[in-house]
Amino acid sequence: MKCIPTIDIRRPIRTALAVLAIAAVPAGAVAVPAFAGPSKASAVTTAAGCATGWGSLPDASTFQGLGHLTDVRTGQHACFDRIVFDIDGKPFWFRVEYVKDIFTVGEGKLVPVRGGAKLAIVLLAQSYDETNHYTYNPANYDELTDVAGYRTFRQVVSAGSFEGETTIGLGVRARLPFRVFTLTGPGTASRVVVDVAHSW
Q1: Half-sphere exposure of 110 toward its Cβ, with a 13 Å CA cutoff?
Q2: CB under 8 Å, gap of 24 or more: what pairs does 183-186 form?
Q3: d(CA 115, CA 176)
Q4: Secondary structure of residue 108 in the 3-state scheme
């Protein structure tokens, strides 16, 4: 005897009834899930837009120049916080590295610095000239710039200037990647720039 497959006509009827029921509901009554923040796709795009490829190991230059430190400035950018050192001369030697603590130049006294990690920035540029007049004399050596509200920076302090070198302590939120580079100008001046990323 040949078996004849039976057709379940109840499923099409149930589907049709469900469609009619949905059509009868007002559009404003349909619950739509709300997202508290950006979707995962947009979050990935944002993170990729800030990818730096920087690291957190010590960085140092191999050149030497002549000049004095004249100013320390900070600023916020989309993917990083920036600190700039103005020099009244050619680009000069620097060393930037994460350290456990910041100490004053010459005396070796501990300098308290806020933040989950600390960057020691050593510049071969003193903050006084040959006649012992200051070329950079901040109003507050414990707060060289106001970094309140910065995403990465927590405090910028001076650890002193001695025998041609100036040390700056930079407190940051955590051990985050950074980069260091120099810029020439305006005129005969130059700048050393340190950028610390907001995230890895």
Answers
A1: 5
A2: 183/91, 184/90, 184/91
A3: 12
A4: coil
| CA end-to-end span of the chain | 72
Per-residue HEC secondary structure of 46-83 comes to: HHHHCCCCCECCCEECCCCCCCCEEEEEEEECCCEEEE
Judge whether 130 and 150 are in contact, CB under 8 Å. no
Q: Which two tokens stand for residue 129?
A: 């000239």
Please give the mean pLDDT across all residues of the chain: 80
Mean pLDDT of 47-65: 81
| DSSP H helices in the chain | 10-24, 40-49
> Is the full-model pTM beyond 0.90?
no
When comparing pLDDT for 172 and 186, which is higher?
Answer: 172
Q: Is the pLDDT of residue 16 over 60?
A: no
Residue 46 φ then ψ, to 5°: -65, -45
Q: Which residues contact 99 (CB under 8 A, 6 or more apart)?
A: 118, 119, 120
